[in-house]
Amino acid sequence: MAIVHESMLNSVEIPDVSITDYVLRYADEKPDAPAMIEGPSGRVVTFGELKRKIASLAGGLQAQGFGVGDTLALLAPNMPEYAIVFHGVARAGGTVTTVNPVYNPDEIRHQLHDSGATVIVAVADAVPNALAGAEGTEVDAVYSIGDAEGVDSFEALLGDPIEQVPVDAADQVVVLPYSSGTTGLPKGVMLTHRNLVANLVQSGSALSYVEGDTALAALPFFHIYGMQVLMNGVLAEGCAVVTMPRFDLPQALGLIGEHNVTYFYAVPPMVLALAKHPVVDEFDLSSIKVIFSGAAPLGGDLSDEAAARVGCEVTQGYGMTELSPITHATIPGQSKPGSVGITMANTRVRIVNEVGEDQGLDSEGELWIQGPQVMKGYLNNDVATAETIDSDMWLHTGDVARIDSDGHVYIVDRVKELIKYKGFQVPPAELEALLLTHPAVADAAVIGVEDVEAGELPKAFIVLKPGAEATSTDIMDFANSQVSSYKKVRLLDFIDEIPKSASGKILRRFLRDQENAG
User: Fold this and answer.
1) H helices of 225-267, where?
2) Between β-strands 342-343 and 173-175, what pairing exists: parallel, antiparallel or unpaired?
3) Residue 408 gets which letter from DSSP?
4) pLDDT at site 32
5) pLDDT per residue over 224-238, tens digit each?
C-alpha cells in the first residue's frame, strides 16, 4: 500500500485563467508602477505599458495568422521584451519555446525542429545563429529585438490590441522549455496555462511579497526557474523585476543597492560568492530580506555563512522543469540546514526505494511527486513521458530524498545522470555522442565531478581506438567547439575500458567512485 506524504499546508484554489491574465492581475490597479527595470540601462517598463504591449503583440500575431497550435521560438537574455513576447504569444493562444540565446546553430535547429516553431524572435546578437539554425526547419519568419541585419524588428508585429484568446487552461500548452529530464537528450516539456498558474499559487506560502518588494533577475528567463519564480511570479504579485542579461557579481551588487532589491534569487555558486568574495564588502546589501537558492543542492554551512555575511535569511527550494517548477520550498523563518523545505500546497509526495517499496519518515528513496504542477508530458516522446510519469500521474524525479517528522525534505543523492554546472543541466549522453564522433575515440563516458564554485564539472573518460593518437586537449577542443559554454568538457582522462552493465548501460557510479578514491 502506498505511503503518501501530504503537504502540511492548506490546499489552495487554482483559478481557471490563462497565465497572462494571472500575471497581469494587478496591472490595472497600478498602471504607473514599475514592472520591469532593465538593470544595465535603467529603462523602466510600467505595468500599464507592459499590458498594452502584450495585448498589441498578441493582436499583431493574430493578424499574421498565428494562434492556437502555433509555436514561436524566443531567444533572448533577461530584458523587459522577454515578458512582452512571452505573454504576447500566450495571449494570442500560441506556445512559446524558450531557447538559450547562446546556443549554436545545431542546438537551435534541434529545438526548432522538435518544437515545430514557425516564428523566431531573437535578440540581435543571436539573430545570425537563429537564421542558420532555422535552415531546414518550419520557420518562415525571423524578427529581432534590437537592430539586426536582414530581419525586421519584432515591433513590426505590433498590431491592434486583443483580449486573451480563449484557451483550455488545463490542456493548452503555453510554453515548451527544453529539459533533459532524468537522463538523455533535451526534450520539450509541455507546460499548460494551468501548470504555470497552479505553481504560482502553490508557491505563495513560501514566496510571499508585500508592496514595494523588488527582485533581481540574474537567472535566465529561458530556464524554468527564472521564467516562473522570477519573471511570472514577481510580476503576478504586482512587484518589480530588475533584469540582468547575464550574472556579473559587482553589477548585481550595485543594482541591489540602487533599486533596494528585497529578494535575491540565486543558484549555489552565487550564494558561494555572496559568502566569500571580498567585493561583497564594498556594497550596501541591507535591503535584502531573503536569498532563495535553487536548481542544485545548497549545503547548510554555506547557507549559514552567506546569511551571516549579508544579514538576511537564506532559504532553498526544490523543483524541476517538469514540475513548473516548485514542489518544495522553505517557509520564511522555518529553515533547516540542508533542507529544501516543505511540500507545497496541493502537492503529494512518495519516497520509493529501489525495489518499489514506499518508505516512511527518515528513510531514503526516490522522490515521487503528484500535483497540478506536473507537466502534460514530453513533446513527441511518449516513451520518455511514460518513463517519467506513471499511470497514476506520479512523476518520478530521479532524485533520492528523505522526509522528516516536520515535513522537511532533504535531497541526499540522485539516480538521474544529469550534471549540474552552475545550475544548468548538462546531459552526459549529449556530450558522449559528440565525443564518439572524434576519429580517435573508441568509447566515451561523461560524469560530473564536484567543484566548489560550479557545483559540478563535466569530466570525460575516453578510450582511444587502437593505434590512434590524440591528446586530451585535442579531444576537448573538438567537443567544446560544438557546444554552448556551460556544456563544455572541463576535465578528461584516458582509460582502457568504460565500465558497463550487461545491457550496455554505462555504470557511471563506478567512474564516480574511482574519481572520489583518486
Assistant:
1) 233-235, 249-258
2) unpaired
3) B
4) 98
5) 999 999 999 999 999
Name the residue among 444, 427, 439 with its Cα closest to residue 474: 439
Q: Which three cell numbers stand for residue 143?
A: 524578427
User: What domains lie within the chain, and their CATH numbers?
Assistant: 419-517 (3.30.300.30)
Q: Can you read off the three cell numbers belonging to residue 31?
A: 498602471
With beta carbons less than 8 A apart as the criterion, state whether 190 and 90 touch: no
Q: What is the DSSP string of 264-333?
A: EEE-HHHHHHHHH-GGGGGS--TT--EEEE-SS---HHHHHHHHHHHTSEEEEEEE-GGGSSEEEEPPTT
Question: pLDDT class for 183, splitting at 50, 70, 90?
Answer: low
pLDDT in tens, 342-351: 999 999 999 9
Backbone angles phi, psi at 194, to 5 degrees: -65, -40
pTM: 0.85
Q: Is 444 left (phi over 0), alpha (psi -120 to 50) or beta?
A: beta
For residue 332, give the amino acid letter: P
The closest alpha carbon to 182, from 395, 2, 376, 356, belongs to 395
CB 290 within 8 A of CB 263: yes
**Other beta carbons within 10 Å of 420:** 18
Determine the Cα–Cα distance for residues 255 and 107; give it in Å rounded to an integer: 33
Helices of type H across 332-419: 382-388
> Count H helices, E strands: the chain?
15, 28
Give residue-wise pLDDT tens across range 240-285: 999 999 999 999 999 999 999 999 999 888 898 999 899 999 999 9
For residue 466, give the DSSP letter: T
CA distances from 110 to 203, 218, 234, 424, 489 (A): 33, 26, 31, 18, 21
* Residue 503, C-beta contacts closer than 8 angstroms, at least 6 positions apart: none
